[in-house]
Structure formats: structure tokens, C-alpha cells
């Protein structure tokens, strides 16, 4: 069976396991204050070309989203996000459980725009509603789309104009940066938002994300919030070892995501050549395909993947590639379909 279910289906890069072996006999202090974590932060700051950011390593995307979206927020504040946003349907209400409401915006795509925000802001003009204070987007989006630099700049300018913060869910930021649709790099990210994270779980790490806080207002008491929300690992040095190893080698962080992108591109082009219709334009390591019942039944006999919805009496199949997806995987699957 070919496997295209997700981009976190393997343990991690071999180089990370080797780094763990090299550190087996060490004794480290906890909670992310160890030498490995500090060296990793220095290396990431160098890659970002920003020495002033606060970086904390957290267990996963849900904890990164909870922390990133609730820091600096009051109980009457709210978060603006698309209805298709990850935090709406995939976090089990964990954001709202903190007491902060998510206000939803509809859009025909998975991308939020400045126009969407300008139109939505008219809904918040009295004491009867929440006070929008933070904007949530993910890059890539839930539909595999990649934001262009101009799009991010327009959203961020809107946020600054209206005294709001912009948070970028970066679970798949490596996939976005690896796409040929992307017109910016790692070093541009700190100028395009107030807070974001570099995804590790979906980028070849054992687990974990690197939360990067740019805005000084959001740094205040952040470690207390991190501890309160259960995201401060006692063995934080395990995260430190991973991020140190990956960022100690130039371009390692994006290497696997670039391969995943090339395999997804080959996969999408091959399927289109065979007459299949894509549900959404191909832009990253997620390929969405429209399937009738006959094709769906056949595909499920040869591969594992997710069904994410339906349109025009057809199911939408999502195929996801990773740093381990090979040309043999793609070619073999294309032959069999």
C-alpha cells in the first residue's frame, strides 16, 4: 500500500537520531534552559537574521496554537480566523477553552485577505460583541495554499493599523517556504507578523515546534503562560538537541520539505495528465483530487489517504508527501491508478 495520509508518519531524520546517540551520556538541566536549547536558539536567530526574538520549543502544533493565540489577550478579546482555519475544526475547542473566542470569517478559498478583515471589522462596533485583537492564519493553508509576501504584508499592515496582532500557524511553514509559489525566505518571517512558529512535527523532527515571538508586548510573562498550559517540557533539552542539529547545517530545515514538494508536484502533474481533476490548485505538499465512487474504491485498494470533503457528487481525496516520499512511490502509484 502506498501511504499518503499525512506528513508526520515517520519517526524523524536519521541525523536527529544520531544526535541523540551522541548525547546519551550527558546530564542536562531542564525546561529548555540547557546548552543545546540555547545553541539552537542562537542558530535559529541567525537564520531569521533577528537576535531580538524570543524562541521557545513546545511539544506540538496544538500547544503552539494555544500559546501563540492566547498570549497578550484579555477575556473580552477575540481572534479573527477563517471558517476553514485549523483552529476551528481541528483543535477540539482548545483555544476557546482558555476563555478567548474565535470569530469566524467565510471565504471561498483557504486564504484570508485584507479585504476579508476590513469587511468583518464592521461587525465589532459595540459593547455587545468581542474586541478583535489577534488574527490567525496558517501557512500553508488547510487547502495547501501558500501566501505570497504581498498578501502577508497587507494582512500585517491591517493588523498594525487596527492595533491587532498577527499570528501565523507554521505547522507547515517549511512546506510553504519550499514551494515554488513562495517569494520570501526564513529571514523575512519576523517582518511579516508578531508571532509565528517553525513546524518540526511535519518537517522531519521527532516532535515539536519552535515558537518565535517577535512583538515585545507578547513576550511578557510568556514562560508563566507556557508552564500553565502544560507546554514546558522538563526534558526540554530533547527539543534543543533536534533543533540544534537541524539548524547547525545550512538549509537542512528545508531540505526534506523541498523533496516533498517535488514529489507532490510530480504526483499532481501525473494525475492531471491521466485526466483527474484537482479540487484546489496545487501549491505545496498536499494534493487534493476529485474522485467518483469507482475511482475512490480503486484508490483505496492500493493506497492510504484521507477524504476531506465532497463536491459535485465527488469525494475530495487528500494525498500528502513527506521527506521520505520517493520517486518510486509516486511512479508506482501513478501506474496503478
**How many β-strands, per DSSP?**
13
What is the rounded distance between the termini? 12 Å
Query: Could you tell me the strand content as a percent range?
Result: 15-25%
Shape: globular
Radius of gyration: 20 Å
Widest β-sheet, arrangement of strands:
2-8-7-6-5-3-4
Mean pLDDT: 97
Largest sheet: 7 strands, mixed
Helix content: 25-40%
* SSE pattern, N- to C-terminal: EHHEHEHEHEHEHEEHHHHEEHEEEH
Low-confidence stretches: none
Number of helices: 13
Write a concise keyword list for the protein shown above.
alpha/beta, 13 helices
What does this molecule look like?
The protein is of the alpha/beta class and 337 residues long. The protein contains 13 helices and 13 strands. It is 38% helix and 19% strand. It has a 7-stranded mixed beta sheet with strand order 2-8-7-6-5-3-4, sandwiched between helices. The protein has a 4-stranded antiparallel beta sheet with strand order 9-10-13-12. Strands 1-11 form a two-stranded parallel ribbon. α4 links the parallel β3 and β4. α1 packs across α10, α2 packs across α10 and α11 packs parallel to α13. It starts with a strand and ends with a helix.
Amino acid at each position: 500500500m502506498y501511504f499518503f495520509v499525512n506528513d508526520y508518519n515517520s519517526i524523524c531524520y536519521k541525523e536527529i537520531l544520531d544526535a541523540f546517540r551522541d548525547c546519551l551520556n550527558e546530564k542536562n538541566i531542564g525546561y529548555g534552559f540547557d546548552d543545546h536549547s540555547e545553541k539552537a536558539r542562537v542558530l535559529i536567530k541567525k537564520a531569521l537574521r533577528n537576535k531580538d526574538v524570543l524562541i521557545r520549543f513546545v511539544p506540538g502544533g496544538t500547544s503552539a496554537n494555544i500559546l501563540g493565540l492566547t498570549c497578550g489577550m484579555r477575556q473580552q478579546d477575540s481572534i479573527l480566523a477563517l471558517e476553514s482555519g485549523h483552529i476551528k475544526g481541528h483543535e477540539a475547542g482548545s483555544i476557546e477553552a482558555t476563555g478567548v473566542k474565535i470569530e469566524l470569517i467565510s471565504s471561498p478559498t483557504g486564504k484570508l485577505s485584507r479585504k476579508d478583515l476590513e469587511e468583518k471589522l464592521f461587525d465589532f462596533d459595540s459593547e455587545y460583541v468581542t474586541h478583535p485583537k489577534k488574527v490567525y492564519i496558517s501557512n500553508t493553508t488547510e487547502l495547501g495554499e501558500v501566501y505570497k509576501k504581498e498578501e502577508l504584508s497587507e494582512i500585517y499592515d491591517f493588523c498594525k493599523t487596527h492595533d491587532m496582532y498577527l499570528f501565523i500557524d507554521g505547522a507547515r511553514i517549511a512546506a510553504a517556504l519550499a514551494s515554488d509559489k513562495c517569494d520570501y525566505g526564513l529571514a523575512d518571517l519576523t517582518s511579516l507578523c508578531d508571532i509565528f512558529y517553525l513546524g518540526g512535527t511535519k518537517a522531519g523532527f521527532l516532535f515539536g515546534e519552535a515558537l518565535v515571538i517577535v512583538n515585545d508586548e507578547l513576550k511578557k510573562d510568556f514562560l508563566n503562560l507556557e508552564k500553565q498550559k502544560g507546554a514546558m517540557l522538563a526534558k526540554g533539552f530533547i527539543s534543543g538537541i533536534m533543533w540544534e542539529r537541524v539548524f547547525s547545517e545550512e538549509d537542512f530545515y528545508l531540505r526534506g520539505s523541498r523533496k516533498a514538494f517535488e514529489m507532490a508536484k510530480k504526483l499532481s502533474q501525473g494525475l492531471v495528465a491521466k485526466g483527474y481533476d484537482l479540487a484546489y490548485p496545487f501549491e505545496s505538499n498536499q494534493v487534493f483530487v476529485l474522485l467518483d465512487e469507482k475511482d475512490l474504491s480503486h484508490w483505496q485498494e492500493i493506497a492510504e489517504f484521507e477524504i476531506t470533503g465532497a463536491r459535485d457528487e465527488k469525494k475530495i481525496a487528500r494525498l500528502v508527501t513527506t521527506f521520505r516520499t520517493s520517486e518510486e512511490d509516486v511512479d508506482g502509484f501513478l501506474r496503478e491508478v
